[in-house]
């Protein structure tokens, strides 16, 4: 399985950042075909970023989409609109969307389905809060989120899962390597029950939450970790390239 190194830029960046794909490739030339690089910039630069990645072997993704094709949804973008920019991926159900913008499991499932129909690859985020982890409920919470957030038609190629414990995002904290392995194993188990081994074994499961060059080697070495969804450390191409170098 290929490794996906994905940078979620959140609400950071401006048009001067169109330089970053070339900067990244200077630091990390595209010779290792086992690694896919993905940048998820704010929506205003999706199309320009796709152009800036021309010939760089870097994919572009959005950070959210609406579940409807069109309509009176001020401020929103449909999956088709995102696909029209040339983007190939879309992050769905990030914990910030779930906590701040009301993206619940049912809506995440509808958005995921819309993304799949638009031939975008959804990266569906799940993860427990600190209280849930401390109460020993991490597996249960992630299992429930998965069941509610993923539509029925996964084929192995049209779905990526990102396990992102909410308490690890932007905090510098990470679960232990054993805890990451346990949850990834649990996610693989849930996907296998739902879709069967043939499909489930093809679904990439990423880890996200305070991934940086210093911890990437250990995390990315885990059997069921097929890449990383990176926030803070993905804003600088030097640290993103350092993480990719650990694969
Ligand atoms: P972080 O963010 O790497 O800054 O913790 C990860 C994310 O929000 O996807």
Ordered list of secondary-structure elements with their pairings:
Layout: E1 3-8, H1 20-27, E2 35-40, H2 46-52, E3 58-62, H3 79-84, E4 89-92, H4 95-100, H5 105-117, E5 121-126, H6 130-134, H7 138-149, E6 160-163, H8 177-195, H9 197-200, E7 204-208, H10 213-220, E8 227-230, H11 237-245
Parallel strand pairs: 1-2, 1-8, 2-3, 3-4, 4-5, 5-6, 6-7, 7-8
The structure holds 2-phosphoglycolic acid.
2-phosphoglycolic acid is lined by residues 8, 164, 169-170, 208-211, 229-233.
Name the features.
single chain, 247 residues, alpha/beta, TIM Barrel, 8-stranded parallel β-barrel, 11 helices, globular, binds 2-phosphoglycolic acid
Structure description:
With 247 residues, the protein is an alpha/beta fold. It has a single domain, classed as TIM Barrel (Alpha-Beta Barrel). Helices cover 39% and strands 16% of the residues. It is built from 11 helices and 8 strands. α1 runs parallel beside α11, α5 crosses α7 and α10 packs parallel to α11. Bound molecules: 2-phosphoglycolic acid. 2-phosphoglycolic acid (PGA) binds next to β8.
User: In whole angstroms, how far apart are the ends?
Assistant: 12 Å
Order of strands across the widest beta sheet?
1-2-3-4-5-6-7-8
CATH topology: TIM Barrel
SSE class = alpha/beta
Number of helices: 11
Q: Which CATH-level-2 architecture? A: Alpha-Beta Barrel
Order of helices and strands: EHEHEHEHHEHHEHHEHEH
Which molecules are bound in this entry?
2-phosphoglycolic acid
Shape: globular
CATH superfamily: Aldolase class I
Uncertain residue ranges: none
- Total beta-strand segments: 8
Helix share bin: 25-40%
Reported for the largest beta sheet, the result is: 8 strands, parallel, barrel
Report the portion of residues in β strands.
15-25%
Radius of gyration: 17 Å
Please tell me the overall pLDDT: 97
What is the CATH C-level name? Alpha Beta
Count of discrete domains? 1
